[in-house]
Amino acid sequence: MPKATEAQRIALGLAHALAAANDEREHAREHLVRALGRDWYWLDAILRRVRRHFGAYGGPILSARHDELAGFLARRAGLLNALESAVEKPRLVGYFSFQARMGAAPVNLTGAAMPVLPTSGDLADWLGLDIEELEWFAGTRVRDGRRLPEALNHYRYRWIAKRRGGTRLLEIPKHRLAAMQRRILDDILYFVPPHEAAHGFRPRHSALTHAAEHVGAAALLRMDLRDFFLNVPARRVHALFRALGFPDAVARLLTGLTCHITPKFVLREAATAGGSGLAGTAAPWRSLSHFFAPHLPQGAPTSPALANLCAFHLDLRLSALAGDAGARYTRYADDLAFSGPRELARGIESFKKTVSVIAAAEGFAINPRKTRLMLQSQRQQLTGVVVNARINPRRGDYDDLKAVLHNCARHGPAGQNREGVANFRAHLAGRVAHMNQLNPARGARLAASFAAIAWPD
């Protein structure tokens, strides 16, 4: 065996070459050839492995993970076998700089460009702030548990009950911070596509497209990620902004604008908030540690897109796992779905364990209480949609809506708005439209019932 330091030295040079390349395969290969001074037969195999493991051939993703990439390359059989050979051995003859920096701005399909923000001052100008205001919005922290005056806190907090027990904390940014987050979402995050398996929080995708991928499967496995947003720490968000090419100081401020530490007084008051709170959860202190660290706040407009992008490597690995099992994988927010042949059910315990191990390695955790295997002889459903033979609404959901529309037409809509929905007419119209997407025949019948309602002026 050659000395490990030689393999590591060459692997580091190759990692720099890939990180300095764009994400086109031929460009990445050209960099490897230039780094080694010749074309080696094992370069194609290395590129395939890099693409499968990291999701890219080159560019910002590999630039942000160059140390991990170098370690990965140092273990490739092609490189190690070539170094063991008695004939000509690979050696580095070319070197590349890999430091991420703001270069040519990416352009989306509308022709708009991602902003080039090389300094903190440029970020402040882009958001219409001065530096002091930017630091204030990005650096607000409550560490000693004191209640700050409402005007000094950029978030509002609301505990809501989950449908199946426990509570969820909504951390809702106030107007000015929310406007900044929406701009970050529209002008930066929407430029970056999540993994193709992700169907939540992205244009032209929905719970319906997520469910439609699994219609007619012999076996369907549904799993759930526990505390999805809370399990995305600020360091991962910072790494994402760095991978997009923003300098460290700018990435730090963008992270501060999109992440949050929950004040202690919010957690102390949880037990009395609305008659429920952390006291009603099965293991409250397990979740509290995430609140005490900077995390993605559930309620911020940027959190869904950031969670999707930070779960890219999770989606990549689970897609590969599903492919090896002859199955299909998609994710809608924290809902994971795997579908495939009957053989998937036979080895399901090993498969579930592997999913849990991969999720843990990527910083997430599976909620075992929400794991369910559904065979075609049972009702298979995902995100409220039945997928046995075709996408279809649940019978109970259809019957409930049908009864509400009938009562609205017969007795008037005011008495049927038992939950106090602000715009009850629009709410019902949305439910009818959703049913029409799932089953046009039933949707047409519901639309006729909706049209028979006499709405007050």
What labels describe this entry?
four-stranded antiparallel sheet; alpha+beta
Description:
47% of the residues lie in helices and 9% in strands. With 457 residues, it is of the alpha+beta class. It is globular, with a radius of gyration of 26 Å.
How many E-type strands? 9
Q: Beta fraction of the residues?
A: 5-15%
Shape: globular
Which strand order spans the largest sheet, edge to edge or round the barrel?
4-5-3-6
Question: What is the tally of helical segments?
Answer: 21
The proportion of residues forming helix, as a percent range, comes to 40-55%
What is the typical, i.e. mean, pLDDT? 82
Gap from first CA to last CA: 84 Å
Category by helix and strand content: alpha+beta
Uncertain segments are: 99-110, 140-147, 273-286
Layout of helices and strands:
Blueprint: H1 4-20, H2 25-36, H3 43-54, H4 60-64, H5 66-73, H6 77-84, H7 120-127, H8 131-139, E1 155-161, E2 167-173, H9 175-187, H10 207-212, E3 219-224, H11 234-243, H12 248-258, H13 264-268, H14 284-292, H15 303-310, H16 312-324, E4 328-332, E5 335-340, H17 342-346, H18 348-361, E6 372-375, E7 381-382, E8 385-386, E9 392-393, H19 395-411, H20 424-438, H21 440-451
Antiparallel strand pairs: 1-2, 3-5, 3-6, 4-5, 7-8, 8-9
Helix pairs in contact: 1-2, 1-5, 8-12, 11-12, 16-18, 19-21, 20-21
